[in-house]
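Possible regression after last week's pipeline update?

I re-ran a chain I had predicted before the update to compare outputs. Posting the input and the new output here so someone can diff against the archived version. Not blocking, just want to make sure nothing changed silently.
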Amino acid sequence: MNTSEVIKNLAARLDKSQTEIKELLHNTLEIFRNHLISHDKFTIPGFGTFDVAERKHKIAYNPHYKKKMLFPKKMVAAFRPAKALQENVNQE
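New output (post-update):
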């Protein structure tokens, strides 16, 4: 599913125009983005938790240069699904 499909589905469910839903989705994602940039953790109950985690530095082989290289530590966005969501995904 892509952004256009999400907008169409939400517009149909909420009986709103796609333009309104597009603006709502844009603003919602902007709020999420700002929280992650500020390294703030936030939770959507029943869905999951978004957080920022530190990925440690690592030494890995680079086949292009044919030598080991040091990749520095960096911050990455992380998502941990809620227990209920994880259980629903794992149902057969």
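Follow-up from reviewer: compared with the archived run. The beta strands are 42-44, 48-55, 58-62, 67-71, 74-81. Marking as no regression found.
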